[in-house]
Fold this sequence. Notes:
It contains four helices and six strands. The protein has a single domain (2-112), classed as Beta Polymerase, domain 2. By secondary structure, it is an alpha+beta fold. The longest helix is centred in the N-terminal third of the chain and has 17 residues, at 2-18. β4 and β5 form a beta hairpin. 38% of the residues lie in helices and 24% in strands. α1 packs antiparallel against α2.
Amino acid sequence: MAFDLEAMKLAVVDAIEDIKGFDITVMDVRKLTSMTNYMIVASANSSRQAKSIADNVREKLKDKGFAIRGTEGEKDGEWVLVDLDDIIVHIMIPTTRAYYNLEQLWGEAEGRRGHIKAAPSI
């Protein structure tokens, strides 16, 4: 399962970056909640871009065989949530992200893109 989680995390970050999402933060919340393992928060320049990023995350992860539980917030697009069960992805425009400040709410982030560990080779 750890390998799948690592592959899923990397696939989400790659899908966000494909559509020019930025300020990506990965938070390990396993010690804080039982509802998910990781939260990934990313910024988008507009609600249209936030929707496009969410679409790309769903498409890329579905192509890799991961289940998509649901999506919320696409109507307005200021905060789009993609529920992948083990990972919850939050895509927000900067003003919404600053207002809700999920990183502070959930504690220290595991790290930004440069600190994500690659999946171990088997």
